[in-house]
Structure formats: structure tokens, C-alpha cells
Amino acid sequence: MPNTNSIALNTIGVIRYSRLSTGLLLISLSLAGCAIQRPLTVTDRTDARYNCRGLFAQFDQLTTRLQARDFQTVSVHGFPYLRVDRLLATLAPDSHDESKFAAWVNHLRELDQSARRFEYANLPAAARNKLEQGTPGRGDVLNDIAQCGESLRLADLKTDESRQTLVRQAKVPDNYRTAQRVIGLYPLSALVVRASVSHWQRSVRRLFADSAAGKPPPLGVWLRYRPPGSPPVSESEVADILRISTDPLGIPIPTAAQLAALLTRHAPVWELDSVDDNDRPGRPYWGTQPWPQVDVTQPVIYTHVSYTRFGGHVLLQLNYTLWFAARTAENRLDILAGRLDGIHWRVTLGADGRPLLYDSIHPCGCYHLFFPGGSLRPIERPGLYHEPILVAQTAPSLSVTQRLRIRVSARSHYIQQILVDDQAESGKLYQFASYDMLRSLPIGSGDEHRSLFAAQGLVPGTQRGERWLLWPMGIPSPGAMRQWGTHATAFVGRRHFDEAFLIDRNFSAVSVSNP
Cα separation of 64 and 58, whole Å? Predict the structure, then answer.
């Protein structure tokens, strides 16, 4: 998404069932698959389906009512023990392929169990106790949820018909609201925004051209943040890791040690123009305020992996997110300023082990920039109701010992340039932390936890003034920070940061001869 200050100028007026017995598993195996589309239709309370589906229903009702629901993945309707993301929705295999289908369902199960761990941790103690009291053995709720999920899976997915039903239901809706677009006269308002997008993209290209001509003067001081060092990993070693670790669906799943090596290898150096603490990266936490704050005493970069599809392969993506306490207002009318800001940097690795593409957004889904390597060429897709992608700069080639440096402006936190880092220059070491930690943060010094993200994946208290101008584009609270999996990245048209075919639809491969 573009700089909406410039858009604003053009758009004003336009709008625990405890440990389950062996008997439960045996009963579950005999259940008919037709129950999957009508959960909780069994009225016999001694029936395993009733107890298991009842446990899932109670859990979901509590997490929804108490706002502990996790929005990173999507529940599959009729299959409460499964969740899906945009990649897996595109990888649904033929229901007769036992190996691939089992692997696919395993992934859906893992997504659900992962989300429920965070949701359970984020429930108040009284709600957790209620769930425990509601299970006959007063046992481990998450263990019961896991066992129930497995028993229902065995019962539900015995027939080809039920498997096909699952494939049809395993979809992820987009993050746009059509009703908003209708009310906001989208066919007209989108044309105004489309013109402003073009103007903003031209200004970004000029910014990168000027930065390439010389290092811009800082508003404050340039501060450098370096990743922890590690032995270099060669491209051939990376390619071997990716090839050997693939599962039946072709998804590369490195070991924890391999992944740590990859994340360290491709972690960038950050060069930040810093005026005050709002320009220093830190750790989000819940304090006494009704919105999250950021501790900048220790720089932290949050990491996780994702996947995309390109050239017939499922490619591994390394993600790095840094958070700032706020975006400082540049004037009294700055509609982009507000609490929390950040940068999300992503590295897509090709099957050959080389970086294929870099891209970035802010956690609002805004300012999507692409930095392709030499083996990609952008595809031109003209159209009044299509927002073109923005290729800000071609990514430089790196040797095995080199890494990228990302130069970022003060206040707005816009990326100004990416370049090969000068390893002779010093910098403060930053730490890695798992992005999943943000899905359940401690509240103060007590035992309660809360996700950084609330309803619809939005971060509370981070709404921006721009939302009043850009709501006709159909995006919930434009400019607000939001959770992975909910990033709409185009005002005109529909596009998401985690689309499985994002690269495939916007770039074509170019053969590159080796010197």
C-alpha cells in the first residue's frame, strides 16, 4: 500500500474431557462420516462425538467471548480440529492419494493445535478452570483437545465423500469487505486512489534513485544493528537442506538447527536514522496501558517461516519483523502517525539455495516493496482496478560471507535503500525471538497472558487517521498494525502478503548464465 498522506490529499470528500480412554478411540472409529457437516447433532452424551465436539464448541465459545481467539489461521467449517492458511488451501491433494492427503491433514492439525495453545494461554484463569471442570477427569485440556482431534479425524475422514467435503471447506477468505466497497462507491473512489497510488510509486522510485546516488543526511543519527554471527552457509548447502527436508507435499521443513542457520545467514543489518526512542527497534509488551508498548532497551527481531509457490516448487521464506514504539507525527495533521510501527522483511529462497526475491511491508500491510534478484522480471498487468506492484530496487548479489544492509528513515520508517553491508563498520547486536511469542505475551508481572493481536488480527490502539479516508477500499482499519495472515497489501484490487502465488502472478523467471 502506498503513502496515504499523499492519497489523503486526493481522496478527501470521496468518501478437558480428561485423558480419553481406549474406548473413546474405538467408538470414534465406528462413526459415520456424514456427521462432519452437522457438528453436535449427536444427543447421546455417552457418544464420543458428543463429548469431543462439545469440548471443541465450549473452547471456541470461550475464546471468542473473551477475545482470546487467534486469527493467524482460519478454522475449517465442520472440522473444528483443523485450521488452514493460504498456502495449504492451494495444496489440497487428491483424496485418493493417501500419503499426500495424510500429510496435508497433518499440517491442518498442527495449525489448529498451535493456535489453541496460544488461545488457551490467553484465557483468564477462571475460564481455564471452567474448561478443566467441564472434563470428567479434571485433566489437561490441551491434551484432551489433541486426543479428541485425532479421534474425530479418524472418524470423519474415512470416506472419499467426507474428504472431498474437507477439501471444499479448507479455504481462506480474503481480508477485504465487499460491503464497505459497495457503500463507499468503490468503482468511483478506487479511481481516485489508483491515481494517488501511481503518484506515490513515482515518488518512491525517485527516493531510491536519490539514495543510490549518495547516502542521505539523517534527521538524527545513523544507528546500526547487526545479527549474531555464525559460520557462513553456502548456497549449495542451503539447496541440500531444502531438497532433503521436503515432505510429501513438497514443503521444505528444515530441522530447528538448520532453520536457525538459515535465519542467521540471511538476517540483514539494519541502519536506522534515529531521532528518538520511536526510531529504535524493541520488544512489544503489555503494561498498564490498554494498548501494547515497546521496550527499546534491547533490540529484538522476530522471526518465522512461511512458504510460497513458484516454478512448480514450494519455496521457503524467511521472515524478520522489527517493532517501533510509534510512528512520530511530522505535523498536527499527520494521519499516518500513531502507536506502534514496524517493518516486515521477507527473504524467498529459490530451490537452488539463492535468494530469489526480497520484499517488505509495514505491519499494517502498507508500503509493499519488491526487490527481485536478477533471475526475475516483473510482469506488467495494466488495468484501472489493479494496483501495480512496486519494484523499488534490484537486489544486489551477495557472496557467502556478505549480507544485506537495509537503510531506514526516521519517523516514517520507510526503507530508503538496500545495499551490501560493509562488515568493517560496527553495530549493536540484536537478538532473535520467535514471532509466535507475540501470540501470547505476559500481562505485567502476573500469570495472565494476552496476544499482541486482537479481533480480526488487529493490534489494539494502533488505528490511524487515514482509516476515515480509505475505508471505501474495503480494508478493516487501514493503517492499523495487524497479525501475519491478515495483511491486505493493495488498496485497489485484492492482494495479500501471504498469497501462495504472489510471486508467480507478478514475476516471470529469467534464465541467468553463470560467468
Answer: 10
